[in-house]
Every structure is written in structure tokens, then in C-alpha cells.
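User: Predict Molybdopterin-dependent oxidoreductase's structure from this.
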Amino acid sequence: MNQPKSRNQSANRLFIAITLSFFFSTLVSRAQTVLTISGEVTKPLTLQAADLKAMPHAEVTGNDRDGKEHKYSGIPLSELLKQAGATLGSALRGENLTKYVAIKAIDGYEVIFALAEIDPEFATRTIILADAVDGAPLPQGVRPYRVVVPGEKKPARWIREVKSIEVRFAK
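Assistant:
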């Protein structure tokens, strides 16, 4: 009778070991997330956390889902797209106005912005890829990066855990 119990214990231990292994590998992969910028750009980028930290940051304020005002710090999306060679400024006309930016999170959530919404020659607000809020790093479940759109009534496009940015044509 001892042998079946021993097999069950071994199976339980194996199940726990596999579950823990999966859990920790998920945490490690999230911690090592890089940001990619691709699509209709002349210079696709893969940026590490240190690359983004070294870039000039802007600060914006906005009301989060909690209704409280927060101060976010991050890189303007327009600067990231400019570095990747996206069509911005005087070149953003004609068929280029049908381009949009798809931003994807680690969990697969995706939001879209018209490219003109991000271009400072078209828009008055600065949309940022935030890495800090109220002087502290973004909290767990939001980091490594979050898009912050000042002035939006609903923060539904304030995508968190951002992993990629892709410029696409709508046609």
C-alpha cells in the first residue's frame, strides 16, 4: 500500500516543480522584456531598458482610472518613432496619413493611434511611453512601460506592460 502513496507524492512533487518552473520563467521573461519598434519604419529598433532610460524624458499629468491626478515621466512616442524612421512632420501627408500605430502589451492587449495623433506637428498633447509615476518606478502589473495619453476622458488606451510598437498602413 505504501508504493501507490509514494507514486502520488512523486506525481504531486513533479506537478509543483513544473508549475513553479513555468511561473518563474514567466517572471524572468517579463523582467527581460525589450521594446521593439517595427513595421512601416526605415530603421526597426529593439531597445533595452538601459537604452530607454538614457533617452530624454518628458513629464505629463493625467487622471488614472482611480480618478486621481498623477505625474508620469517617460519618452515621447514621437521621439521613439522618429528614431525608428517613421513618417512624421512634413512627410506626414497624402497616403502617409493612413498610417497608424499599434501598441501591444505582454498579455496581447493592443491599442491603436492614428500616426497624426502622435506627431507634434498635428497634435497639441504629448503622448509618452512612461517608465515612472509620481517619481517612482511603475508598479508591478504596469511596468516595464505604460502609454499615457493626457486629456483622454477614459484611460482605455493607457496600455500597460508595453512590449512592441508597430507602424502600419490602414489600406
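The radius of gyration is 21 Å.
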